[in-house]
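Homework help board

Subject: predicted structure for assignment chain

Our instructor gave us this sequence and asked us to write out the predicted structure in token form, then describe one feature. I got the tokens but I'm not sure how to describe them. Can anyone check?
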Amino acid sequence: AAIKLNGTDKVRAYALDLGESAEFGLNEADKPAQSWACYIFGVCREIQKRGGKIGGFDTVFAGDVPLGAGMSSSAALESTYAFALNDLYSLGIDKFELAKIGQSTEHNYCGVNCGIMDQFASVFGKKGNLIRVKHELVGSPYNDRRASCERVAKMLGQEFLRGATMEQLDAIKDKISDEDYKRARYVIGEEKRVLDVCDALEKGDYETVGKRMYETHWGMSKDYEVSCEELDFLAEVAEECGVTGSRI
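My token output:
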């Protein structure tokens, strides 16, 4: 991205790869119509909400992070502008907060109630470490899965599913949908698996670590339904070959 402060209260942005331009102010009512511009606008607004004093700028950006390729081009865009504005205006925001600015942008301006993994990876990631297959968050069931968990937590009288047990979940099974039950079963089971892995690592029990990793994958695949054919294939091959945590 090329960015130049323009001394106004307007942002003039050009998406080189898309051949599109957008101009918008920095107030809440100035949200642009273009979806890509909302990421830049959201970063500006989230910085302002945190007390950062910023002004208008002219910018053009392009990139080689493929759209929908599992590397989160949106997180890359958010992180680029969060980092740039932090630097240009000497705001002193640390990297973790920059990642949270990107996450809040998704929540408040792009309609995706995402976690922080993609933004965290974009800010802290290292070259050559991980690539995933094509996905699309906007318009996907991501928000529906989160809503399922929130509904079950409410039925259990909790704000979150953390700390809930399978026994509690089974006690309300006939009061919730099959889909909500499966989503909650994965989350509750995953909390237990994480604790099991922590205990196993302290004991040097890598066989258990490996088993829980497989259970996590198949829970994501069957109950939470966020896997894909490629990941399932890799998991199947690894299990067939007898790969465990001690050999990874």
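Reply (TA_rk): Your tokens look well-formed. For the description, you could write something like this. Confidence is low (pLDDT under 50) at residues 244-248. That's the kind of observation they're looking for.
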